[in-house]
Amino acid sequence: IPAVTALICSGLLPFLHHKYKVKRERDEKLFETRKTEYQNYFKILDNAAKLAGLDYVVFMNKTLPVATRRLYEEESSTEAILNYQKVLNDFTIGMQEGFQKATSELTGLRIVCSRNLIEKLEQFESLYQVLLTMQPEMLRQLNEQLTPEAFLTGNYNFETEIQQKMLRKGNDLKSLRNQIIDTMRSELGYES
Length: 192
What we know:
Layout: H1 2-73, H2 78-104, H3 106-112, H4 115-145, H5 148-153, H6 161-187
């Protein structure tokens, strides 16, 4: 019995302790890596969702009507036309940049995240892509709203069918972003 006790104390316990320590260090390193990747990607994801959803509402309800009103009030002056084109370009470029940033940063995240999170990220990417493909139609419908009579009266109706679809998609994107954040928190051990 003393020999067995000596064997356990001198060989088995240190071995088990070492194995536990290596596993704990590996888990801590994975946690830190995930935490860093999730924090970095969250910033990008948040910016992309803002560009797709929240900024779209502001664009349709404030920015575009102001630019259109200026175009009307200044009787299509060169400055007003340039401002109008800049407003449209800034909006479309902003959405595209948000998508590019969100998708280009996925590589590091995909290495350390779960299958469930990867599926949600792919849904986010796909939904954002749908929004991008809706932009030309949105611009076409907006152009249709700029009729001579609307221009003469200064009354514009930007409540188009595609606008409603894009608002719904933007809200879906925001909801999916929140699900991704909840999944990240769960994987890091912070249950919401």
